[in-house]
Structure formats: structure tokens, C-alpha cells
């Protein structure tokens, strides 16, 4: 898993890849070690920044490179988009920024339900959320506090903002949401591994009523991990078959060789099914090796598209 963070002051962990089109993407750590990198960070830091989430996962060079790649790509509209699938690995940052730019060009978005994996399974519940705003370089991204409160009252979702501060699958995407969808409030959700089919359905029950005309459900998920590029392509083809068939139940039996958050994709698909938005349009399928030009190392793959 790759996380990008604030570059000032940076304790460099290295620089992630350079794409064929000049897409340079950095990797840095701000102040404390991050979950998934080696040690657990001090929760005292988060408390010091209340009542909002600090800017914890943002790299200026990575973001600028992704935006440059996006600017060089023509807009591809997403007619009727209700749900969006994109990565949270910023080696594939251009897929993130291009998807959000094109979504903004396609429709007016006033609320984003942003879901991703709880990589460390921190906290005390299957699904965690936050009602705090997020600091970003593009201004504050506000949470939809009323909707978050209602979700927390459902019983499945727990309000644990400290966990979300340190979870890059959501915290690393919020700045891009604020940049391209500045009017959108955010409902952030992180899902533990091992969510059951019943829990997926219960969460879709809670989310479907929130899916008004201004709301888009965004799942920030990375796909095949740790395999050679050719093997990752094969796993992606198996995942794509399920996305196109609107069949999410096999996902819950799969692991990192296919994707890092089966539950997030399952919730996306189940919620889309309740809206009648079951047609999946693929926008891109690549991997970190193809982006960096290094096809000799294990890769993380990306499946990018939308439901209409």
C-alpha cells in the first residue's frame, strides 16, 4: 500500500515512480510513522488538531504531476454516473484526478459518500465514519454532519474520527474531492476487512436513501497486489467480469491478489443495484508497473470506472 502525505516537513521514505508521460509521484511522511508503514502513530497528534482532520496525506509534487497528466487528457463525460470506482494509491494519481475532473464536468455534485478500506482494522466497529471537516490545500472539505449522525444512529456505523485521520484510503482522497468538487460535502466511511454479506446489505440499506440527485458514491480501492503485471491483469479480468455482471458476492471470498477492499466494492455495487444503476463503464485498467515503466517488480493494479 502506498500513502502520500504532506511534504513539509518531510522525513522522506523515497520517491515512487515516473510514468512514461512524466508522471512523477512522491512518497513522504509528515511528523509520525503512518499505519501500514511500520508503527502505529500517536493519537495525541489528532486530538491537538481537533475539531478538524489535519492535512496528513498530501504530496505537492505527486498532486501536481497527476494534475498535469489530467490537463493533458481530454474530458470524457460520465453520463448518468451514480457511483465511481478509483484508486487510492497515488502512483496512479492521474486516475484519481482525471476521474473527479470528468465527474465534475458531467454533473453537479453536492455530496460525496467516500468509502475505502480500513487497512489496519483500527477502531471498534465494522464501519467507521467522522463528522469533522478536513483541512486541504484547497480549503476545508465539510462533512455532512446530519447524514453522518443518522448513519451512526443506524447501529452498524461508528463515529471514530481519529481512525479516519490516519486512513489514507479516505484521507488521501479528500483533498482531490475538494479540488474538483468544491461544493460537495463528504460522508467518509472506512470498512474493515471481513465484512459479511449481511453487513454489506445493511450498509447499502442505510446509504441508498442518501443517494439523491446531487450525491455520488465513490469507492477508493486498489486492486491486485504483489503479483507480476501479467498475473495482475488476469486477476483484474476476473474482477471486471463480476463488476459487469453486478455480482458482488464472490468478492467477499477474495483477498489482496484481487483487491484490497472487497467490502467497499460490494457496498458500491449493492447500493448501485438498489438505484437501478447496474451498468459498469470501464474508464481504465492499469497497474503501478505500467505507470512507472517497471514491469519486473510486483505491482498494484487499478480498475477505474463508473456505474450508471
Would you write up a description of this structure?
With 308 residues, the protein is an alpha/beta fold. The chain has a single domain (69-307), classed as LigB-like (Protocatechuate 4,5-dioxygenase, Chain B). 33% of the residues lie in helices and 19% in strands. It is built from 11 helices and 11 strands. The chain has helices at residues 44-49, 60-71, 93-106, 145-152, 161-165, 168-171, 174-180, 197-207, 229-245, 262-275, 288-292, and strands at residues 15-18, 24-26, 83-86, 111-117, 127-129, 157-159, 185-191, 215-220, 225-227, 280-287, 299-307. Strands 3, 4, 5, 6, 7, 8, 9, 10 and 11 form a 9-stranded mixed sheet that branches. A two-stranded antiparallel sheet has the order 1-2. Strand 5 (127-129), helix 4 and strand 6 form a beta-alpha-beta unit. Helix 2 (60-71) packs across helix 3 (93-106) and helix 8 (197-207) packs across helix 10 (262-275). The longest helix is centred in the last third of the chain and has 17 residues, at 229-245. The chain is globular, with a radius of gyration of 18 Å.
Amino acid at each position: 500500500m502506498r500513502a502520500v502525505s504532506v511534504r513539509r516537513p518531510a522525513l522522506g521514505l523515497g520517491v515512487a515512480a515516473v510514468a512514461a508521460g512524466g508522471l512523477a509521484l512522491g512518497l513522504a511522511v509528515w511528523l509520525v510513522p503512518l499505519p501500514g508503514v511500520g508503527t502505529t502513530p500517536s493519537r495525541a497528534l489528532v486530538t491537538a488538531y481537533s475539531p478538524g482532520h489535519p492535512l496528513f496525506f498530501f504530496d505537492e509534487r505527486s498532486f501536481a504531476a497527476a494534475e498535469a497528466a489530467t490537463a493533458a487528457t481530454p474530458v470524457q463525460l460520465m453520463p448518468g454516473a451514480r457511483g465511481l470506482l478509483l484508486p487510492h494509491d497515488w502512483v496512479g494519481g492521474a486516475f484519481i484526478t482525471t476521474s473527479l475532473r470528468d465527474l465534475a464536468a458531467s454533473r453537479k455534485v453536492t455530496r460525496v459518500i467516500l468509502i475505502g478500506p480500513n487497512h489496519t482494522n483500527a477502531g471498534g466497529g465494522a464501519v467507521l465514519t467522522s463528522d469533522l471537516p478536513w483541512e486541504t490545500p484547497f480549503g476545508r472539505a465539510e462533512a455532512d454532519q446530519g447524514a453522518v449522525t443518522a448513519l451512526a444512529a443506524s447501529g452498524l456505523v461508528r463515529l471514530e474520527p481519529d481512525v479516519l485521520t490516519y486512513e489514507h484510503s479516505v484521507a488521501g482522497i479528500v483533498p482531490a474531492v475538494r479540488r474538483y468538487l468544491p461544493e460537495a460535502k463528504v460522508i467518509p466511511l472506512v470498512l474493515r476487512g471481513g465484512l459479511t454479506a449481511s453487513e454489506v446489505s445493511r450498509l447499502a440499506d442505510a446509504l441508498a436513501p442518501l443517494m439523491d440527485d446531487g450525491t455520488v458514491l465513490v469507492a477508493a480501492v486498489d486492486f491486485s497486489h504483489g503479483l507480476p503485471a501479467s498475473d495482475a491483469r488476469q486477476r483484474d479480468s476476473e474482477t471486471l467480469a463480476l463488476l459487469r455482471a453486478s455480482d458482488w458476492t464472490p468478492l467477499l471470498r477474495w483477498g489482496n491478489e484481487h483487491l484490497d477492499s472487497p467490502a467497499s466494492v460490494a457496498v458500491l455495487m449493492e447500493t448501485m443495484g438498489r438505484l437501478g444503476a447496474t451498468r459498469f463503464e470501464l474508464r481504465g485498467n492499469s497497474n503501478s508497473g505500467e505507470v512507472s515503466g517497471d514491469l519486473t517488480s510486483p505491482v498494484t493494479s487499478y480498475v477505474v470506472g463508473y456505474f450508471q
